[in-house]
Task: inverse folding
């Protein structure tokens, strides 16, 4: 495999875009946590069905928050590894650049897999809310 600057440079704009996407998801989850906290903090009855749903939502949000944190770390590490790839190519270390580029691809694949898992968790959570609405309509 002959890796050149063009190949490694193609990753440079993609990685910050992924990091921005994860950052946006982090912001949204943070806002949800704050909203639920405000609702939960104001006199909540733990026997109430709504309270139980809220506690479940908090648990889900904790999981999502952890996944997003790992995603951001993986994306940051892949960006750094990509910069090392470009530097290794620039300095003429072809084998080292290939190793770093493999690391970039691996880290991005892991981040995308976790992103898919996090979307699945978010969808299940939203479906619980829709189920509540469906039950109230009947």
Result:
């Amino acid at each position: 495999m002959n890796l050149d600057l063009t190949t490694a440079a193609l990753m440079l704009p993609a990685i910050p875009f992924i990091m921005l996407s994860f950052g946006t998801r982090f912001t949204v989850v943070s806002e949800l946590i704050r909203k639920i906290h405000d609702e939960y903090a104001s006199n909540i009855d733990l026997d109430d069905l709504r309270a139980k749903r809220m506690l479940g939502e908090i648990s889900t949000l904790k999981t999502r928050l952890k996944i997003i944190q790992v995603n951001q770390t993986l994306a940051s590490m892949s960006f750094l590894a990509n910069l090392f790839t470009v530097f290794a190519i620039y300095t003429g270390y072809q084998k080292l650049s290939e190793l770093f580029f493999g690391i970039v691809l691996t880290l991005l694949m892991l981040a995308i897999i976790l992103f898919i898992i996090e979307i699945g968790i978010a969808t299940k959570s939203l479906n619980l809310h829709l189920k509540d609405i469906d039950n109230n309509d009947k």
